[in-house]
Structures are given as C-alpha cells and as structure tokens.
Automatic annotation (TrEMBL):
PANTHER family: GEPHYRIN, MOLYBDOPTERIN BIOSYNTHESIS PROTEIN
Origin: domain of life: Bacteria
Enzyme class: transferase
Name of this protein: Molybdopterin molybdenumtransferase
InterPro entries membership: MoaB/Mog-like_dom_sf (IPR036425), MoaB/Mog_dom (IPR001453), MoeA-like (IPR038987), MoeA_C_domain_IV (IPR005111), MoeA_C_domain_IV_sf (IPR036688), MoeA_linker/N (IPR005110), MoeA_linker/N_sf (IPR036135)
Catalytic activity: adenylyl-molybdopterin + molybdate = Mo-molybdopterin + AMP + H(+)
Keywords attached to this entry: Magnesium, Metal-binding, Molybdenum, Molybdenum cofactor biosynthesis, Transferase
SUPFAM superfamilies in UniProt: MoeA C-terminal domain-like (SSF63867), MoeA N-terminal region -like (SSF63882), Molybdenum cofactor biosynthesis proteins (SSF53218)
E.C. numbers: 2.10.1.1
Family membership: Belongs to the MoeA family.
Organism: Paraperlucidibaca wandonensis
Cofactors demanded by this protein: Mg(2+)
Ranges for domain MoaB/Mog: 185-322
Function noted in UniProt: Catalyzes the insertion of molybdate into adenylated molybdopterin with the concomitant release of AMP.
Length: 407
C-alpha cells in the first residue's frame, strides 16, 4: 500500500472514536441466573471453575480391549479375556494380570490396565484375543487430561455460544449467572419514512433502518425497544427521546445527523443532555454522533441505510458489547490478498462491500453507494482500506466477514 496525504479536518479517526466510547462505557451490574436452555447468546457474569477433573476418570477412547502394555512384548500376543466393560458400567474389578478386558468407548479403564487396543487390530478366538504390540496409553483418555479440578474454565465476560453451553452442561452445571440483556431504545428519524407495508405517497420511502438495526442488535443478543419512526421535528424528537430514555440503557437513532436544516438531532440532544462527538473519518458513515440524553448514552447513526448498518457493526458494536459486560469487544480482521486495486487514496477509512474468491483473495462489489442495500446481500463482508492509502492488486487487505460482524 502507498500512503498519500490524508486530510479529514475536524473528523475523528474510527479508532479514536471507539477508544473514546470504550473509555466511558459503564459495565453492567444486574445479573440473572438462567437455565442453560435460555443462556445462549448471553454474557457470562461469573467465572466458571472445573468442579472435577475432566475426564473425571480414565476411560477408553475406542471399542476394543483394555490391557497392560507391558504384557504386549511380542507381535500378536494371545491373552485370555477376563470380562467386559461398557459405557455406563462402573470400573469393576482390577484387570487380572496378563489378561485383556473387552471394553467400549467411554467405559472406565479398569485398574491394572493402561492401554486400549482397537478391536479391528485384534484377532478374537473364543475367550482369547491376539493383540499387536502397541503404544503405552494408546486410546486412553487420561483423568484430568483436558482440565484439572479447580482450573479456570470460562471467565466472566464471555458470550455464551453452543460451545460454552455444551461445556457447562458437561461439567454438570444446569444454570448459569449472566448479565441482564442490554436494552437498546431504537428510533428511526425522517419525515419521509413509513413502515414497510404502508402505502407510500410521493416522496415517501419504507423504513429500512428500523427493522435492519433491530435485527442486527437482536442478533448480537440485546433487547430492542423499537419506537419506530419519529419525524424530523424538534418537538417530536424531544418527546420521543425523553420517553424512550426512561425505558432503555442506551439510545440509538438513525438519520438527521448531517448538516442540512432538516437534521435536528444534534441540537435536540445538546438541549436534553450533551453532544460529545460528531463526524468520523469513515466511509460510509461520516456524520455519526455520540452523546447523552439525560444520563442515557446516545449514538446517532447516519440515515443512509448502509452507513447506519456499517457504523453499527464497526463503531457501535464494541461499545455495546462493553456495556453488556463482554470481555472481547473488537472484531478481528483477516488479512487477505486484494484482487482489486484502489488507485486513489481517500481521506476517510473505507469499509467496502467485498467477497471472498476461490483463490483466497478478496474482490470488491461493483456498487458501493451508501444508500444501496443490495450489495451487502451479494457480498461476504467488508474490506478495509485506511484513510490516505492506495492499493495495488496482490497487496494485503484486512477483511471482516459478515459471519462475525452479524453475530
Ligand atoms: N451537504 C452535505 N450533505 C450530506 C453530507 C455532508 O457531509 N454534507 N453527508 C452525507 C452523508 S455521508 C450521509 S451518511 C448522509 C447522512 O445524513 P443524515 O444522518 O442526516 O440522514 P438523513 O438526511 O436523515 O438521511 C439520509 C438518507 O438516508 C435515507 N434514510 C434515512 N433514514 C432511513 C431509514 N430509516 N430507512 C431508509 N432510508 C433512510 C434518507 O431518506 C436519505 O436518503 O448525509 C449526506 N449528506
Ligand atoms: O458516510 Mo455517507 O455514509 O458517505 O453516505
């Protein structure tokens, strides 16, 4: 990548804005205890310590024969079988010296055995079994090999997915303490907006940001109180903001934050609380604003639908995660090879709709307009190009997949 002069006077960088938001995010305190069946997507509010070794006792990883490896000094040693152990059985008596015990996957290893030989490598003849030379401890899951009793398994602040739910269940934990879900109060501002399904008069359009942002926030595990559409009128905005701020933890609006006379939000927020920052060196999404209404934090996303969604994914998400008590807040980008060039450096950091190629690279969607929603649906994620940078094909480019941005 080559760097050229980057001037974006008055604009804060994306990283500075995220850092500023994270610095003043207040971690949650309200917790609830939920059964595992209701805990997916919630954020853990307690550290989880292994209540016992995992596995709790040595057991077989294969269907076969439990033996003492020292008995297998010559190829195809013949041993008498002294019994049978299936999963769910207790470990039973100790293995008779110089014998083998029939054993199944998950069954406890009997005392005296240290190795399991898979049945397909053995030759059964009545009550005897011929067993090849084998490696000591093969096919045995040793007690505590995964986790030692008392070790830290999951830390508070981890968002629970199927992986963590399965692990908690395996440790015998039926309920878990999680943070109360963050309540986001959502407003779509604009005189031109009507809800999808309504008849549209000349100049009116359907509200895309309300349903889109609500789906995004719910997908991240938050509760959404959707107040719908508010016209671009100071009195209507004031009363909608006041009403919603008493019901939610954070207010998020779309539209009305740019520079036109119809963009009243910044003035209304300044009057009801404080406008703390405005305008970010990001494309799309420059007019993003942040402040508070009373004591409630407020994020003002731009009205252009793709600007609203992308600023929510890039700037709002780490902040909301932190408000929810999540430990890991920043999205990791993959560095891939650009299969496009970006000859002209831009003054704002670019988040471009892009797709993965079969050769492991990234191409750009032909349409990048911030009012366009279809390019996002026909791409795999966002390629990021720094402000002031140009790029030639073959150079590395950071790529953020929708698979992680949306979850
Ligand atoms: N003179 C300037 N004009 C604009 C600038 C600028 O710097 N100087 N910035 C542009 C950029 S960048 C963006 S992004 C937009 C954002 O403006 P606002 O946040 O004030 O948004 P609106 O003006 O209310 O709407 C912009 C656009 O998006 C449509 N919209 C709004 N809400 C919705 C919704 N809920 N669903 C679907 N579409 C929505 C709206 O109809 C407008 O077309 O400002 C540029 N202008
Ligand atoms: O930032 Mo605007 O989002 O460039 O359209």
């Amino acid at each position: 990548m080559t760097t050229s002069a980057c001037d974006s006077p008055g604009l804060l960088t994306v990283d500075a804005v995220i850092a500023q938001l994270l610095a003043q995010a207040i971690a949650p305190t309200a917790r609830i205890r939920l059964p595992l069946s209701a805990a997916s997507g919630r954020v853990l509010a307690e550290d989880i310590v292994a209540p016992h070794d995992v596995p709790a006792w040595a057991n077989s990883a294969m269907d076969g024969y439990a033996v003492a490896a020292a008995d297998l000094q010559t190829p195809m040693t013949s041993l008498a079988i002294d019994g049978r152990l299936a999963a769910g059985d207790g470990s039973g008596s100790a293995l008779t010296p110089s014998h083998a015990r029939r054993i199944f996957t998950g069954a406890p290893l009997p005392a005296g055995a240290d190795t399991v030989v898979a049945q397909e490598h053995c030759l059964r003849e009545g009550d005897r079994i011929s067993i090849p030379i084998t490696t000591l401890a093969a096919n045995v899951r040793a007690q505590g090999e995964e986790l030692a009793r008392g070790s830290l398994v999951l830390s508070a602040g981890k968002r629970l997915s199927a992986n963590e739910i399965a692990l908690l269940a395996s440790l015998g934990q039926a309920k878990v303490s999680v943070f109360q879900p963050l309540r986001i109060g959502l407003l779509s501002t604009g005189n031109e907006l009507r809800e999808a399904g309504s008849a549209l008069a000349a100049g009116q359009i359907a509200n895309a940001n309300g349903p889109g942002l609500a789906a995004l926030f719910r997908g991240w595990g938050f509760d959404v109180i959707n107040s719908g559409i508010v016209p671009d009128q100071p009195a209507a905005l004031r009363s909608a903001f006041r009403a919603l701020s008493s019901q939610c933890d954070v207010l998020i609006s779309s539209g009305g934050v740019s520079v036109g006379e119809e963009d009243h939000l910044k003035a209304v927020v300044s009057e009801l609380g404080e406008l703390a920052l405005w305008r970010v060196a990001i494309q799309p999404g420059k007019p993003l604003a942040f402040g508070r209404v009373g004591q409630r934090p407020w994020l003002g996303l731009p009205g252009n639908p793709t600007s609203a969604l992308i600023t929510a994914m890039i700037i709002a998400k780490p902040y909301l995660r932190r408000l929810q008590g999540q430990q890991h807040v920043q999205e990791a980008a993959y560095t891939l090879s650009a299969e496009f060039s970006w000859p002209k450096a831009k003054p704002r950091r670019q988040y471009l709709r892009a797709s993965l190629t079969n050769s492991g690279g990234v191409t750009l969607h032909a349409q990048q307009g911030s009012a366009m929603l279809s390019p996002a649906c026909a791409s795999d994620g966002l390629a990021m190009i720094e402000a002031g940078r140009s790029l030639v094909a073959g150079e590395p480019v950071p790529f953020l997949p929708y698979a992680s941005l949306l979850s």
